[in-house]
Amino acid sequence: MTEELIAAGLAAADFISQSRNTARVQAIMQLSLAPAFLLAGIGAIMNVMTSRLIWVANRIDRIEQLQREGVAGAAVDDLPALEKRRSYVQGAVMLSTAAALTISVVIALLFISAFIQPRIGTLIASAWILTMVFLVGGLGLFVMETRTAARRNRERARERKRRARNDSATR
């Protein structure tokens, strides 16, 4: 028991002496800047995704309320596309959140790696790759959501033109 306490005390003293080296801490800080900026970028992207998710969810709720009241009209036709959009953007937010989590792990591992004996470069690289997989997946789903929105807008524009032609033809 006493030996374990001494070993823990020596490890703590070693950590303190290593972290006193300003140049070493500065190097670690520089290494963590790129992942930190990526984390900030992921946060900005997630803000946009979350705003779209809220808009889509509110639109679905409004249409369903109008449907219950019996006054939804043609707005009901938007529900399938809106449900698809909600699914895509929810997946995008989830994958982006996973990317933010894994890039935070990368930052933590970068700091830890400077103060421990075992080399964990492979673990850090793997976490970085996993971050990119999550981020690419989230952005891919976000692209699918925006394409679904654009497709539905084009469909509505064609429907309006067709109705306008039919209206002018009946006059």
> What structural class results from the helix and strand content?
mainly alpha
What does the largest sheet look like?
none
Distance between the termini: 97 Å
Order of secondary-structure elements: HHHH
Give the amount of beta strand, in percent.
under 5%
Roughly what is the average pLDDT, rounded to an integer? 89
How many DSSP-defined strands?
Answer: 0
- Parts with pLDDT < 50 across at least 5 consecutive residues: none
Radius of gyration: 26 Å
The structural domain count equals: 1
3D shape: elongated
Secondary structure tally, helices: 4
How much helix, percentage-wise, in residues?
over 70%
Lay out the secondary structure.
Elements: H1 2-19, H2 22-69, H3 79-113, H4 121-170
Give a description of the structure.
By secondary structure, this protein is an all-alpha fold. The protein has one domain. 88% of the residues lie in helices and 0% in strands. The chain contains 4 helices and no strands.
Pick out its properties:
single chain; 171 residues; mainly alpha; 0% strand; elongated
